[in-house]
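Field log, afternoon session.

UNIT: design team B
ACTIVITY: writing a sequence onto a fixed backbone
BACKBONE:
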């Protein structure tokens, strides 16, 4: 498994996850995961400390080990930047940054239709779909979710002799709900191109004829170093497979 490491020190790793790789292990998943890769390439080694001298709760150490230091997640088909803690202390610090919404995240997405207005914020509560537990949706009483977006450019694609309008967006989730960007874009009737869950059967078939996978890429990340407190910024270019899709636009 080839996963580029774009930053590494004693406290954390920042990787550029390719599309098609699952982040966390699960009983239902038999594929090799980012978690497996992390443990084989960067084995976890915990320093021994007196039981009464832990700078963080013991459960933090257990969670750090069980998650292999992976602080947040990306969907299998989403590519881009992912942060992995190398110590329990860094894990605890980074978790607090994400929970406290101190982290800035930006994604690149190609969505259906011409998005109007060209910039805005989507606020709609997200919850697991009670009729299909693998899907999420907008439900009253769901968890607060907020996503800001702005248009980069508009495209037209000639697909099956029909002109298909699409919008290329920079998307910034302010919260971190599962499938948040995908659910929110579907909610405003601009689903992400080649989304196998929220795009619809007929639409996904047409999408895959010109876009080989979900057009969603985690392109920018800003965090505070968990030890020094210094702000760190990371960027990831749009992968070649998605760049080729844009080059097809009219």
């Amino acid at each position: 498994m080839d996963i580029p490491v774009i930053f590494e020190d004693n406290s954390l790793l920042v990787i550029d996850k390719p599309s098609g790789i699952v982040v966390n292990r699960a009983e239902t998943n038999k594929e090799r995961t980012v978690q497996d890769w992390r443990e084989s390439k960067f084995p976890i080694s915990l320093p021994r400390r007196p039981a009464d001298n832990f700078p963080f709760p013991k459960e933090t150490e257990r969670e750090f080990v069980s998650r292999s230091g992976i602080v947040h997640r990306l969907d299998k088909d989403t590519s881009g930047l992912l942060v992995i803690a190398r110590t329990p202390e860094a894990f605890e610090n980074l978790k607090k940054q994400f929970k406290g919404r101190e982290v800035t995240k930006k994604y690149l997405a190609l969505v259906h239709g011409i998005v109007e207005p060209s910039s805005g914020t989507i606020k709609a509560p997200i919850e697991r779909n009670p009729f299909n537990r693998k899907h999420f949706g907008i439900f009253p009483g769901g968890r607060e979710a907020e996503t800001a977006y702005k248009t980069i450019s508009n495209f037209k694609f000639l697909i099956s002799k029909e002109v298909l309008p699409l919008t290329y967006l920079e998307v910034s989730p302010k919260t971190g709900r599962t499938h948040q960007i995908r659910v929110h874009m579907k909610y405003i009737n601009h689903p992400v191109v080649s989304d196998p869950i929220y795009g619809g059967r007929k639409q996904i078939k047409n999408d895959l004829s010109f876009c080989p996978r979900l057009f969603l890429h985690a392109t920018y990340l800003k965090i505070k170093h968990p030890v020094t407190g210094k702000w760190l910024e990371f960027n990831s270019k749009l992968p070649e497979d998605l760049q080729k899709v844009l080059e097809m636009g009219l």
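LOG NOTE: The chain has one domain: 5-246.
NEXT ACTIVITY: expression trials, pending approval
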